[in-house]
């Protein structure tokens, strides 16, 4: 009886530890989504402002003012719907295990596939194997991969030595030089004409034969990080005012 109780206690402790880790991950995602939630609160503020404007317009009267408020109401409904769709999309991605960084979503697999199979998986989820365009993004992925090599979307298949990102992002050889391991890429010949045409990443990049099975990282752009307003203003500058 004592052995059984001890076994149950150990099982319960293990479950608690697992749940604690999952809760920590969820909290991390919530912190990353705070800017989005702050923007959502802006929508509520806009709704309040619009109601105040509506009151003033009703006081002022006039068909032009009424037309303007109807237009504003329509814009508010559109933006509110867009905001709800964005929130629902983010929630679905969180549930599916995606992580967020600088306007992009990343999926890190726990299973292994060849480079081509991994890219097929990403495409089936409206994404591509990840491109890396900055030191900050590389650092984010280094932490996320946690000491395990993962496929990324860099390859020189087609023309040896001409590297390109599978998602179409321009490859900057000078900017990316520091991301490679020492003496990489080396295009090591594995025999039978099999060469290293695909790249996996841990702390640094390394070229590898594309047939080798590794976990992978998918990346999809959620919204551009510059010049983008998720919730545009609803109040036009030429709004009629009460005389």
UniProtKB/TrEMBL annotation:
Keyword Glycosyltransferase: no
Transmembrane domains' residue ranges: none
This protein's record includes keyword Coiled coil: yes
UniProtKB keywords: Coiled coil, Lectin
Coiled coil location: 2-29
Pfam families the UniProt entry points to: Lectin_C (PF00059)
Highest taxon listed in the record's lineage: Eukaryota
Residue ranges of every copy of the C-type lectin domain listed in the record: 101-219
Gene Ontology molecular function, alphabetical: carbohydrate binding
InterPro entries per the UniProt record, alphabetical: C-type_lectin-like (IPR001304), C-type_lectin-like/link_sf (IPR016186), C-type_lectin/snaclec_domain (IPR050111), CD209-like_CTLD (IPR033989), CTDL_fold (IPR016187)
Protein name: C-type lectin domain family 4 member F-like
Organism the protein comes from: Phascolarctos cinereus
Lineage summary: Eukaryota, Metazoa, Chordata, Craniata, Vertebrata
């Amino acid at each position: 009886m004592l052995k059984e109780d001890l076994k149950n206690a150990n099982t319960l402790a293990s479950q608690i530890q697992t749940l604690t880790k999952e809760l920590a991950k969820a909290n991390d995602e919530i912190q990353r989504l705070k800017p989005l939630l702050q923007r959502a609160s802006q929508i509520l503020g806009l709704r309040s402002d619009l109601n105040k404007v509506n009151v003033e317009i009703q006081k002022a009267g006039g068909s032009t003012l009424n037309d303007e408020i109807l237009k504003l109401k329509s814009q508010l409904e559109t933006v509110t719907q867009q905001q709800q769709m964005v929130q629902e999309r983010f929630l679905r991605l969180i549930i599916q295990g995606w992580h967020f960084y600088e306007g992009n979503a990343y999926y890190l697999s726990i299973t292994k596939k060849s480079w081509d199979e991994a890219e097929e998986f990403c495409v089936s989820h409206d994404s591509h194997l990840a491109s890396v365009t900055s030191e900050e993004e590389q650092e984010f992925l280094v932490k996320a991969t946690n000491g395990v090599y993962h496929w990324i979307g860099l390859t020189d298949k087609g023309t040896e030595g001409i590297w390109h990102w599978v998602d179409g992002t321009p490859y900057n050889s000078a900017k990316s030089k520091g991301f490679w391991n020492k003496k990489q890429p080396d295009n090591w010949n594995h025999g039978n004409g099999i060469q290293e045409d695909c790249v996996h990443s841990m702390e640094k990049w390394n070229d590898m034969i594309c047939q080798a099975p590794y976990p992978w990282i998918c990346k999809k752009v959620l919204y551009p990080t510059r010049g983008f307003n998720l919730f545009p203003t609803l109040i036009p500058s030429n709004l009629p005012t009460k005389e």
